[in-house]
Structure formats: C-alpha cells, structure tokens
Specification:
This protein is of the alpha/beta class. The protein has one domain: Zn peptidases (Aminopeptidase), CATH 3.40.630.10. Strands 4-3-5-8-6-7 form a six-stranded mixed sheet. Strands 1-2 form a two-stranded antiparallel ribbon. Strand 6, helix 4 and strand 7 form a beta-alpha-beta unit. Helix 4 runs antiparallel to helix 6.
Length: about 220
C-alpha cells in the first residue's frame, strides 16, 4: 500500500490518499464524508488487506468527525455542503434551503473553508479521476451526479439498491454538484444500509470495488 498524499486535520488526525496498485489510477473511492457514517472506512481498509487494486482510496475524509461520531468535522461543518459550487450556502438560520437544514448541515463560513475540503479538491486537480465513488449511509440507493448513470446501473446490479438521480432534498455545496454537475466527472454516491453490520456489506462492496478496477476509459 502506498500513501500518495496526506494532510493533518484540526484535531491532529491524518487523512490519506492511498493505493495498492501501480500505473495511472483513474477511479477514486472516498469513505466517511460524515463522521457518523463509518462504514466506508471499514470496508476500504478490509478490502486493501487482501486485494491489490489500481484504485485511489481516501478511507476516511473526516477522521475528526468519525472519532466523535458526529456528521460534521471538528469545526462543526458538514463537508458535503462545503464545496465551492454555484449553489453553496451556509445552511443556517434564514439562509437554510431545506426543512432539515440544522447546524449538522452547516456549509461553513465560506466555500472550501475546511482542511478536508481543500485536500479533496487538491486530489481531484492533481489526479484528475475519470470516475468517483463516495460511500455514505443510510438510504440504500445508488445516487449519481454528472454522466454516471451507466456506472450506477452496474453498481445497482451488484448491491441491489435502486438507482436515483436525485437524493430527494437540496444539497447546496455538495461534492456531487462540485464534481458531477459542474465538472462533468461521473460521480456516484452509494448510500449503504446502516441497519446491518458493516461486515455484511463486505461481499457486495468488494464486488463493486472489483468492478471499478475493471472499468476502462
């Protein structure tokens, strides 16, 4: 396993971009945007124990939040609302754009204000992935942004979740909007089942990783 890039968070934890393969990886897989959705970190690290894969992985984008079991990072910012998109907003008080926008959905004082967000933006610019998969919970859907429908359909066949072009509520400043909509990078948000142990997701998610490893561009 090779660490390609890393950064230290506000609380002194490390975010790493890693790969176990060689060549020119063009698919990026990201776990734990939200600290209370830890499944991605477990699944990525388990996969890398026994698999050599030409994928780029960020096992945990939000280690501070994961350690505290909070959706947000150490600054109370929802990383999936902090990207510099045309529809970015603070998502607080009178600026809220949806009924459930509370402090857990705070987009930050300005776009890309957070260490974690800047790190991911730098990764996208440096490695220029052709396809991105993010692992979330709990809705059991394969959501996609940008030209990613065909990839979403293949992932749906593997895991049995429906494909949804919309998650069903506004997501200003989201990563999907930043990469998929505004940069036309196929971007998939795989919403995993949080009601079952992560160990039960190993088989389908590992098959998804294997599928992504086989994609050619």
């Amino acid at each position: 396993m090779q660490v390609l890039k890393s950064v230290t968070t506000k609380s002194g934890n490390t975010i790493e971009l890693i790969t176990s393969g060689s060549g020119n990886p063009k698919v990026l897989v990201i776990g734990v945007f939200h600290g209370d959705e830890p499944q991605g970190d477990f699944l990525i690290r388990e996969y890398l124990k026994n698999n050599v894969s030409n994928l780029l992985f960020i096992p945990c984008l939000n280690p501070d939040g994961m350690l505290n079991n909070t959706r947000t990072n150490a600054n109370g910012v929802d990383l999936n609302r902090n990207f510099p998109t045309k529809n970015w907003g603070k998502n607080e008080g009178d600026n809220a754009t949806c009924d459930d926008c509370t402090t857990d959905y705070y987009g930050g004082n300005k776009p890309a204000s957070e260490i974690e967000t800047k790190f991911l933006i730098d990764v996208i610019k440096e490695y220029n992935p052709n396809l991105i998969l993010t692992l979330h919970a709990p809705y059991k859907v394969v959501n996609y942004d940008g030209p990613a429908e065909k990839f979403a359909e293949e992932i749906s066949k593997i895991i049995g979740y429906p494909v949804e072009a919309s998650i069903g509520y506004p997501t200003p400043g989201s990563f999907g909007t930043y990469c998929g909509v505004e940069r036309i990078i196929p971007t998939i948000t795989l919403e995993l089942d949080e009601k079952i142990p992560a160990e039960e997701l190993v088989q389908p998610v590992f098959k998804i990783f294997d599928y992504l490893s086989s994609v050619t561009f």
